[in-house]
Amino acid sequence: MSKARANLAGMAWRNLWRNRRRTLVTLSGITFGVLLATVFTGMGDASYTNMINLAARMGGGHVTIQHPEFQDTPSLKRTIDHVSANVAVAQSTPNVRRATVRITGNAMLATARENTGAFFIAFDPTDEDTTTLSVLEALSAGQMFSSARDKGVILGEKLAENLGLTLGKKVVYTVTDKQGEIISELVRVVGLVRTGAQSLDQRLCLFPIDTMRRTLGYAADEATLVAVFIDDQRKSDAVRNHLSPGLKGEAAAMIWSETQAELAGFISMKETGTLFFELIIMILVAAGIFNTMFVSVMERIREFGIMMAIGFSPGKLFKLVMWESAWMGVCGIVFAVAMTAWPYYYLNKNGIDMSAMTGTSTEVAGVAVEPVFYVGIYPENAVAILGIVLLATLASGLYPAWRAGRVAPVESINLV
Known about the structure:
By secondary structure, the protein is of the alpha+beta class. The chain has helices at 3-16, 20-57, 83-91, 157-163, 198-201, 209-216, 236-243, 256-259, 261-299, 301-309, 314-350, 355-358, 379-396, 398-405, 409-413; strands at residues 63-66, 96-110, 115-123, 139-142, 153-156, 170-176, 182-193, 204-208, 225-230, 252-255, 352-353, 362-364, 367-369, 372-373. The chain has 2 domains: 3-54 and 264-413, no CATH class; 68-250, no CATH class.
């Protein structure tokens, strides 16, 4: 930094603290704005990530490998083969944590008195855990399958209630196999699950994958999808683009926002609302900073006139006021980070319990949402908030700085 710039920066720093009360009030406004923006953004980042991860664990993963036409026209005829090879391709892709094979589709369940439609997931219990299939931790009664060749069915609690079924009772399920033939099988209820999402609990049933393969006439290396799981859902696009060229057979990779369009729409709507709220906050913060800078400039009109009379150019006065704005922004960021750190830490660890308003759980697009909301902001969003605050502070100083440079020395010196 040149000596002239250093002098202007030092002078601006001293000017900033000539009226400490006004400066501290402005810094408090910046801090409050950053705190609100951080909490709301962090709550959204954490909640949406949890919802996306749970949705992935309830079905097709963060990236789904399936038949190219399965998404538009779901059918048990639209399968993918070379499943083992595609799992190997997925697991060799950077950022991929796990890849599991599943068969999903619709079935009709019937008892002597009731019948209803259901959605089934057939999986290999030896290849799944709670990090890939969330219903494994939702078992409320009975037992989970021990192998892919087990017999029986596990039902959602509400589905079992609607059919009048309890553990050990028998139910007939009907599906359309690969050749289009209608197949019915009699099975015994071996377990019940409660996910917390009512729409899922009243439609979900689980089967062992090899047992379902035999029923549907699938080959040993055939299924409807491969669910791919990654540590950071934001990398779904990159993973899909990386593994797509290496897929074997007639298969396509789709990310969660394509397979879970309703959930993606809900998140997009909420993110837009959060951005609008943050925009209002930043406008209010910028208005407060502008008021402080403008009043400061108007109070020093005579001082600026004297400075111009002794050799200061309009450009230097402009830079002086802009330095004051810059210092205000930097101090505001430092104050905001210091004052936001503890509330952020507390909300990150303990969250906000909304169960009094939402009940023990609520549901969005078939995904159960926990009533405790945590704050966990993405680093890039935190940097963006601080950057916007600094830019808003600088922008708020432009007009006051321009007015300072437009002072007429003779008239301003005569002001009392």
